[in-house]
Amino acid sequence: MNELRQIVATSLIGIGSLRERYATALVVVVGMACVVGVLTSMLSVTAGLARAYFRPEDATRAMVWGGRATFDQMRSLHPDAIGTILDAPGIARGPDGAPLADPEFLMWILPVEGFAAGSLQVRGVGPAGIELRPAFRIVAGRMFRTGSRELVVGVGAARKFGLSAGSEVRLRDGSWPIVGVFACGADIIESYLVGDAITVMAARRRAGFAQVLVQLVDAKAYPAFEAWLMGNPALSSVYVERKTDYDRRELGVNTTFFTRMSFVIGAIMALGALFGVVKIMYAAVRARTREIGTLRAIGFGATPVVVSVLTEAALLGAIGALLGASLAWLIFEGRDMWVWGAFKLHVAPSLWALGLAWGLVTSLLGGLFPALRAGRLPPVDALRTG
Amino acid sequence: MKFVPLVWAGIWRNRTESLLTLLALSVGFTLFGTMLTLNQAYERAIVDTRMDRLIVACAFDCGEIPIGYAQQVARIPHVTAVGGELWTGEFHPDKQHPPITVMLVDEGMRRAWPELPMSEADWRALDLNPTGIFLGRTAAARHKVHVGDTVIVNSGPGGTADGSGLYYFTVLGFIADPPGWHEGPLETIVGNLRYQQNWGRLDERNIVLTLRVAVDRPENARAVCREIETWFTNATPALYCVPARADAQETADANINMRQISLGIGAAGLFMILFLCANGIADSVRERLPEFGVLKAMGFRDSHVALLVILEAAIPTLLATLIGGALAWAVDALIAHLALTGAIALPETHATPAAFGWALAAALLIALLSALAPLNRLRRMDVAAVITGR
Predict the structure, then answer these.
(1) How far apart, in whole angstroms, are the C-alpha atoms of residue B216 and residue B293?
(2) pLDDT in tens, B150-172
């Protein structure tokens, strides 16, 4: 108990003296803010992408597609196969008893000037496609009519390509009007033009669907659903995956390396900051030598002195980390981005926690040697030299 | 020269802290140098792509252009050569394996895309061996194959005339990677289109995925593209054309913008060490005020004192630039090696004199900025008060 009191007292004295050493303290704070700011800013890209791809409802969903094509847009599931797929066990049913599954059609459209081929895509959906996306709502204009050559554009694509209700895009059979703009709770579908699947397929002169989005009764229904599809001789070259795994794989192509690189850069910057913290904390111990000597002379133990130096380092590191995460949040949170699809950067709460932990570990490691040195200072020498 | 002992004494006054500052600065400059060379590598991938090369694809993602289109495109004014390419990719139902993708080219590619790093002898060998392939250095490193080896590529059920989907390629040799081509899962493996034309599925023969077109002058590129699109507006399929450099730029913009990000990280690294450097020099000057007072009393002019302080700030930063430059060079070599083996999806980075020049300039700027506040303090210093300890 006595030692605990000593720890609190020495820590408070150390922290109290920071006002006289604000310039050196600022070095640790700014250094850590840079480290954590860069780390959280970079990871906000992957967090934003993950938020756009992964939806809570995906855990009970599956994706079925036809094989033999590298790109989603070039896959082909013959319409004859769709009926068989919808007969599979485990598919949830709507109020009308129809299976909650939507055969989708995907296609790239003519690149808009200044944007790479493949940037703008049309997703053809059926009635169940809208039902499967409860967040889907029209924010301007109106919904496309089934069977009509009409499209609605997601808010992300609208922003990126300057499209709105009233714009037109060229498909293979001529110009198609955009009759509305939709939002879907920041889902990646907001990067697409959406229209009636059958009508879009007719324009594309192709008979095959790209994939079928399936709502299962629950997550446990997946193994039986998969086994039934894969074992069905009527369905050749058909593949199935849980929606979460499917998205993770699709997303991984863009983000796995970038995430790893973010951590490597964060670690390199932390190493630089670590040297800085060691230097600053040595200077802090030097500045507090007389104070430490006095405390030791009046009976304070070495441990409270060590802890007080570590506390000071941790406090400065935490302030810097929170400052860095705050700056990243202020600058990047909600900012529109486009990485083969529209999404918003997201400095997620988990990134704040990661940044704080990153800053704390770095500063504690940096404060360790100076703290041990402070603890080993002989009181008499400290009083003489301080 | 008379300043050197004074500057050295200042720097070496507190060895541990000076060394720690130097280490932190070195890490900062390593990061800055690496990010700068990374930025240059991404820029190079765009700049090295020629404006007088056009990429022609299907306008509405059909992915199939009749090979006969090539002859019609070749007749358009300013077009000097047309080549066709088709990709056949290895198919893995479980999708866990990295795909092997072979770019099958016709002989028109030899003139339409001379930047493809194949010699006359390579082209001749490919012509004589339709089942032959040349692998880029990255692909060779990834797949660990030798000349004469057979590489079996499964294009998926029904992908070939016999329904097996299997292509049996023979390794003829190795070539360099075109700039930026080894990034990501795609790799440079060049094969002969004739193999697919004879062995592919019947309804997939006589088609290509992309036409590459060479034009006589870069300034004609856009006009030729418009001409190609106009010619094929009502064709099935209609065509879309883009100059290769514009395509590289647009593709880079559609992806995570590594050029901006690398510069941002480099700048953050410098900002981090700026405060450390400034704090070090401020502490040094504050603790040695009497010493500076004595120097001034001895007749050192303000400019001499300023020079002393600036040198004291500049020497560690310049030294850190050298150490950081050497480390960045090593990191670049590591990145180049890992990129080559496909372990990382980054372009090959090479330390350049320009990057080192920027690092030196940044080091001097940091030294000058760090010295500003201490110099101001010294300029306003009351010499008598400082010497007498008042």
Answers:
(1) 72
(2) 988 887 767 788 888 889 999 99
pLDDT in tens, A79-135: 888 889 999 999 999 888 889 999 998 888 877 766 666 678 899 998 889 999 989
Which residue from A133, A49, A104 is spatially nearest to A338, judged by alpha carbons?
A49
Which of B275, B323, B372 should we substitute to test contact with A (largest number of A Cβ atoms within 10 Å)? B275
How far, in Å, CA of B56 to CA of B76, rounded?
Answer: 13
Q: In chain A, what is the straight-line distance between the N-terminal and C-terminal CA atoms, in Å?
A: 29
- pLDDT, residue A347, reads 95
Q: Decide if A27 and B268 are in contact by the 8 Å CB cutoff.
A: no
B43 near A CB under 8 A: no
Q: Report yes or no: A152 and A178 within 8 Å, Cβ to Cβ.
A: yes
Q: Is the Cβ pair B238, A204 closer than 8 Å?
A: no
B-facing residues of A in 61-100 (CB < 8 A) are: 67-68, 70, 73-74
SS3 of A13-30: HHHHHHHCCHHHHHHHHH
The answer to whether the Cβ–Cβ distance between B157 and A67 falls below 8 Å is yes
Q: Which of A236, A272, A340 sits opposite B254 (nearest CB)?
A: A340
| pTM of model > 0.90 | no
Give the type of residue at B64.
E
Give dist(CA B182, CA B140) in Å, integer: 11
Q: Where along chain B do its domains lie?
A: 3-46+257-388, 53-216
Which of A104, A97, A147 is closest to A129 using CA atoms?
Answer: A104
Chain B residues whose CB is inside 8 A of the A38 CB are: 264-265, 268
Q: How far is CA B61 from CA A109, A204, B149, in A?
A: 7, 9, 35
| DSSP class of B295 | H
What CA–CA distances, in Å, run from A319 to A42, A324, A325?
A: 20, 9, 10
pLDDT of A8 strictly over 60 = yes
